[in-house]
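hey can u check if this looks right to u? its 89 residues, i copy pasted from the old doc so theres a chance i mangled smth
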Amino acid sequence: MARVVFTANLQRHVECPAAEAEGATVREALEAVFRMNDRLRGYVLDDQQALRRHMAIVVDGKPLRDRVHLSDPISAESAVYVLQALSGG
């Protein structure tokens, strides 16, 4: 199972310990985590179920490509990091 890890900054707002999740895509793994913690969904996804603008996901060291459908493939050995994106000027 893939390991889904949420950064400490996100954990300040909602309890979200790291979890093991099954799935062939980022979407499937996140849905497995959301089934255990539905409150987390609103922090990560917008009302269209796409990744929120202020969030970022890194899969096996590479940024998520599909921010709308979250269709990037993962394997049982994947590490999926969910973090708040930084911005500024």
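The chain has one domain: 2-84.
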